[in-house]
Amino acid sequence: MTDHRIAILGGDGIGPEVVAEGCKVLDHLEQLENFTTERVEYDLGGRRYRETGEVLDDATLEELRGFDAIYLGAVGTPDVPPGVIERGLLLKLRFAFDQYVNHRPVRLYPGVSSPVAGLTPERCDFVVVRENTEGVYAGAGGRLYAGTAQEVATQESVNTRHGVERVLRFAFEQARSRRGHLTLVHKTNVLVHAGALWMETFEHLGDTEYDDVTRDYVHVDAACLYFVTQPERFDVVVTENLFGDIITDLGAAVQGGMGLAASGNLDPTRRAPSMFEPVHGSAPDIAGTGRADPVAAVMSLGQMLAFLGEDAAAARIDTAVGVLLGERGGSSGSAYSTAEVGDRLVELVAR
Ligand code: NAD
Ligand code: IPM
Ligand code: MN
């Protein structure tokens, strides 16, 4: 009997490279903390699509539903048209398993040099709670008169009261477990329909159920400014899907690079598996060079272990990453190879 069944989806580009390092670390954590996993690898992504014309068939999707968690590298490759793998695999999983929270910490570790001059770790420690199943990602809209001079393309944002309320509730709970402050990020001055639904629900929940949590609102353009100039403003940030996607790459830059940004696609109800992956993509520009930074993938593994209740193993990862980043210095994309970083993390988790 294994404790946790985990599906491993390396995906494309640097995805399999960084996930391999995460699995190396996991091997050692199992021994150190006395738990077991059964891991099943799935070869999904660009290569499979090119060979079979299939991205993710229904039978595989249902098989994945039976796991306790999914550990994913990255998907998307230049030799497949944009969107085919991204929508057909990654978004399909997020939607099918109703992983309505995308949990993305933004934290500057001691010793890491942020491109923001003078930024210190005490000033940069927050979490972005990104709505993960709605907005423009729902795919509503289409092309009228495609290819003609009269073409009109629309891409609508879907926001349901149910969807907005549940992710806001999660974010309020997060704030309660941290420093007690929640910031809604939106664009209510332009997106008046969706914005009103988000704002009213935010205010209502705050007044009726979470009056112990202080709250404020920041437009998404200003949020980009404050992420860089005043990250200490934030404790928990909650936002809709597309804004959350964009601002978390900015968050990654502020905390030292794409190689340091982790995420969890969560179904807090635990009816279906949650999925853990770095924020970054398949990085075709460095795939195969052995230079991808696996730290984000290992941090995502830490999120997964915490979600599975392996708190001691998750804590080992957090400590090891802290030590590694302190001794390595600089930022993501350092002088060390992918495997060297993984090997060092294996040593450090054992301490
Ligand atoms: P990207 O995140 O792959 O790369 C952006 C930049 O960051 C590149 O310069 C890359 O070299 C660098 N980078 C990313 N991860 C790194 C790491 N671990 N170590 C060092 N440097 C790293 O974004 P992109 O170039 O816009 O997209 C490439 C492909 O990935 C596209 O097909 C896109 O759709 C896909 N994508 C997938 C995911 C995902 O699977 N969750 C996320 C983003 C993009
Ligand atoms: C991410 C990625 C995905 C997103 C893409 C690949 C669909 O950018 O996980 O941040 O937009 O959510
Ligand atoms: Mn993204």
TrEMBL record:
<keyword id="KW-0464">Manganese</keyword>
<keyword id="KW-0479">Metal-binding</keyword>
<dbReference type="GO" id="GO:0016616">
    <property type="term" value="F:oxidoreductase activity, acting on the CH-OH group of donors, NAD or NADP as acceptor"/>
</dbReference>
<feature type="domain" description="Isopropylmalate dehydrogenase-like">
    <location>
        <begin position="5"/>
        <end position="345"/>
    </location>
</feature>
<dbReference type="GO" id="GO:0000287">
    <property type="term" value="F:magnesium ion binding"/>
</dbReference>
<dbReference type="GO" id="GO:0051287">
    <property type="term" value="F:NAD binding"/>
</dbReference>
<keyword id="KW-0560">Oxidoreductase</keyword>
<dbReference type="InterPro" id="IPR019818">
    <property type="entry name" value="IsoCit/isopropylmalate_DH_CS"/>
</dbReference>
<dbReference type="InterPro" id="IPR024084">
    <property type="entry name" value="IsoPropMal-DH-like_dom"/>
</dbReference>
<keyword id="KW-0520">NAD</keyword>
<dbReference type="InterPro" id="IPR050501">
    <property type="entry name" value="ICDH/IPMDH"/>
</dbReference>
<dbReference type="Pfam" id="PF00180">
    <property type="entry name" value="Iso_dh"/>
</dbReference>
<protein>
    <submittedName>
        <fullName>3-isopropylmalate dehydrogenase</fullName>
    </submittedName>
</protein>
